[in-house]
Request: fold
Amino acid sequence: MADVAGAESGNAPNQTVYVRNLEESIKVEQLKEALTEIFSEYGNIIDLVAKKNLKAKGQAFVVFDDIAAAERAIDEVQGFELFAKPMVLDYAKTRSDATVKQTGTEEELDLHKRRRLAEKERRQAQEALENQKMLKRPAPGTTAAGETVNGRPAKASRGAGLKSSNPSAGAVVADEYLPPNKIIFVRNLPNGYDVDSLTAIFGRFEGFKEVRLVPGRSGIAFVEYENEAGAISAKENTAGMALGDEQVIKVTYQRQ
Reply:
């Protein structure tokens, strides 16, 4: 096996194996078939998750029905080359939905999904805040007004606006161009807008399920619908809406 650096992260042993450094050009179904063939040698697989969205490419989760199987797989498959790339394996940070469904009740599964979704939304809210800070931060050697330290207007950097030719540079899709899904992300909400007031706005669209606020964060919310059609209709009809003292809200799809 190849010696792969950074394979150990200290995650507690559990039934789910996190696989990364997978070849991103391989189609998801072909990748899942190859992973199933490899990992089924070590135990019964109850779920295998691999997605094709940009952020999840090159990764997969293999869920076994017991921890011993996951341990054997990590020990023996670590660094194994699949499609000419050595796989990097570790235990997943949290239990999978399939594991909770296998060992717990419907109520426990629902609670687990809600906690996972809340953590995902918390991370997206934090990313949005960091991106906002980056946009407001002046370039090195300039003032907030866009001038250099000697008072002259700052020149645009060479090649500004051009796509980087560096293949290692991560491609990040702007929020405005995220593909539709069942959950929309609402920002720039005026103070005082709670679940009830937001439900009055977004609950009129077909398939409305719920509004979720992010604890400790004001001005943002997530609105979930039963299907994409409802989310699309809500986004198209509320994006740019002025609330409160003419405060314009920003509505995008949740980043997957």
Residues 106-136 form the longest helix (31 residues). Residues 100 and 109 are 6 Å apart (CA to CA).
